[in-house]
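Friendly challenge for the regulars: who can give me the structure tokens for this chain first? No prize, just bragging rights.
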Amino acid sequence: MVQRVAVVGAGSSGLACIKICVDEGLEPVCFESSDDIGGLWRFKESPEPERTSIYRSLVVNTSKEMMCFSDFPMPADYPNYMHNSQLLQYFRLYAEHFDLLRYIIFQTTVRSVTQRPDFALSGQWDIVTINSDGEEERHVFDAVLVCSGHYTNPVIPLSDFPGYETFSGRCFHSWEYKDADAYRGKRVVVVGFGNSGGDIAVEISRSAEKTFLSTRQGAWVIGRMSSNGLPIDMTAITRLNNLLTLLLPKTLVNWAAERAVNQKCDHRLYGLKPIHRLLDKRTLINDDLPGRILQGALVMKPNLKGFKDSGVVFEDGTVAEDIDAVVFCTGYNGNFPFLPSALSMGPHGELTLYKRLFPPSLLQPTLAIMGLFQAKGPIMPIVEMQTRWAVKVFSGFSRLPSKEKMLQVIESERKKNMKSYRCPRQAALQVDYIPYLDFMAEETSNHR
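First reply, four minutes later:
Bragging rights claimed.
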């Protein structure tokens, strides 16, 4: 019977896992490699290898009403959209309220998680950790919840762009970016058009002489504010809207949504119009980007083609000269080096997970990967539901399908998402927000 549960990481997901394990009568032990909680949302002046890193001005893209934990509302005096420091303070309040810190061992890194020799019967794991003094320790746990995140290994595809070896400017990943002070009066190119790319391009454009934003596919851009001044996620992520997208022709819903967005900012006119329809991918949340384009401080460009001495060349043949820096906002590789390599069964080495949570290859379902997904909505409520389901599975109160059935579901969902996402890795990460929550709620309530 499951008693001791290892939790890897004390970020937002790790804290939720500790709390829910305690609620269910289990004994969690959380290993955190740093000296504090917060994970991704803990700002540091300098990036540290193999840790997450955020920029100083980062503000959340989901409202406090939608993203808070179900049993601990955000303080009333918090703004709807918080600065990263306020979200970290919320995690501190959460941890204090539920007395979670006593379950966390800080400055302890998990080196390996391996199945015990009798795993087929016991489902137990051998875990090796190392502390700040370099001392190794071995542990035995009945189950493992992995909450270490997937924003620690930045992807900077310099080799894809000829001429980078002789480029006179600086090239670096957004993982290193902290603020725009160093780019005052400079000429900067930002490559990549996710939320980080949009934020960083806008911020740099307020200091730089000229900022170029290079995008391969474009994006639908919306602000944080919806009708009547309400947060956009409160009005967009509803069961009514979810029902309408299921009942009405998708082409019609896309047309109506795109028309509404274009009334605020004509995406074709501003060089933003993507190759995909609005409902096919997550929208880019940014309040200021169209205004920076309107003022000429930010110039939209197609995909980067290569480097040329002190300039860069774009796929349309245009050249931006005298570039001082190129910031690559090109994402991260999910990396879990402490896990058994056999769990990475995907064609690109990614983890193969049933419902973005359970490895189907395990003989005993006593390990789960938390938060390894992308959704059109806040992540924290989903992780909370993931944890509740995982704990029920660990304890035997909820059953997983057979390995064959799980693999069929994984492949079916991958093919469905590939219609919208050309990148297999991105397609594998997608979940539909409300249906995914409903599925886990049903599984959690189905006790044996």
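The domain at 158-328 is CATH 3.50.50.60 (FAD/NAD(P)-binding domain). The first strand starts at residue 4 and ends at 8. Your move, everyone else.
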